[in-house]
Amino acid sequence: MQPPTPLLLAVDLDGTLVEPRKPVRQAVIDAVNRVQAAGVRATIVTGRMYVGAKPFADALSLDGPIVLYQGAVLADARTGRFEREVSLSNAVALRIYAAAKDHGLHVQFYRDDRFYVENDNAYAQLYARTSGTAPVVVPSLPAEFAGRDSTKVNVVTDPNRTAEVLALMERVCGPDAYVTRSNPEFVEMLNPAVDKGVALRIVAEGYGIPMERVMAIGDSYNDLPLLRAAGFAVAMGSAPDELKAEADAVVGDVEHDGVAEAIERFVLHSPEAERAAG
Fold first, then answer.
1. Ramachandran bin of 191, using left for φ above 0, alpha for ψ from -120 to 50, beta for the remaining angles
2. Alpha-carbon gap, residue 137 to 139, rounded angstroms
3. For 77-124, how does the pLDDT look when each residue is reduced to its tens digit (9 = 90+)?
4. Model pLDDT for residues 31-80, shown as the tens digit of each residue
5. 261: number of CA atoms within 13 Å, CB side?
6. Verdict on whether the full-model pTM lies above 0.90
7. How many CA atoms, within 13 angstroms, populate the side-chain half-sphere of residue 144?
8. What single DSSP character describes residue 17?
9. What are phi and psi of 17, to 5 degrees?
10. Is residue 89 within 8 Å of residue 191, measured between CB atoms?
11. Beta bridge partners of residue 207, listed in sequence order
12. For position 102, what pLDDT does the model report?
């Protein structure tokens, strides 16, 4: 299936644009630069905080809004100013906290693009390496966030426990939170009104671009709303079968520059683009 030439390119970060905790590959930078030079808008759509996404936004010379915190935040790519934030209510965050503590799980709260923990342990340090910022260690998360909502809540666990923790959090939250998994170690809870697809629609609307002219690329379960919202959905070769089943096309994994492949095949070499170039 060959889509109309996309006018907006939306790319997940970890597992799609880059391997977690590694720099973006030069072939991908070059492809994104070429697509922007051709007049196509580009944005990152990630679960990361702004501080963890900024190096990649800078590497790709992005401007305009980028999507952070699984869709809970839209921020200006250059300045980091939050243009939209839909946080998880304090009551639901405390419910998650209580369940996490009961099961011996590491839990993190977020505010003002910083993440808060009660213990600076291996799980906190794993997240710190991904986010590029150190945790704020406090004696009590409920006390620190008394009367304050959290941008999201994240339970960081061993990859072999992620499915178990996901099921637990779905039971604990019910309809009061959007529960998703992103990196193999992360189970994230957000306001039920947000996800990557909702945020992508807002970005596209701001540019005046119809969703059928949006191409999205993702690799994990949290990217399902992203791919479902886009007019043309691309799954990375490393994606689970559930994601590939939702996609219009599948490309190589990160090590094989799947994002660059998608851009070459469906943006720069689309029939419309070639007609315009010729």
1. beta
2. 7
3. 999 999 999 999 999 999 999 999 999 999 999 999 999 999 999 999
4. 999 999 999 999 999 999 999 999 999 999 999 999 999 999 999 999 99
5. 16
6. yes
7. 18
8. T
9. -75, -40
10. yes
11. none
12. 98
Of the candidates 8, 67, 6, 80, the one whose C-alpha atom is nearest the C-alpha of residue 42 is 8
63-98 as b/e: b if 16+ CB within 10 A: ebbbbbbbbbbbbbbeebebeebbbbebebbbbbbe
Is the four-CA dihedral 96, 98, 104, 106 of positive or negative sign?
Answer: positive
Nearest to 178 by CA among 204, 153, 146: 153
* Number of residues that make up the chain: 278
Burial class (CB in 10 A: 0-12, 13-18, 19+), 246: middle
> Is it the case that residue 276 has pLDDT exceeding 90?
no
* Torsion, CA 122, CA 124, CA 125, CA 131, rounded to 10: 150
What are the structural domains, with CATH classification, of the chain? 8-85+194-277 (3.40.50.1000), 90-190 (3.30.1240.10)
Measure CA of the first residue to CA of the last residue in the chain; give whole Å.
22
Mean pLDDT of 250-254: 95
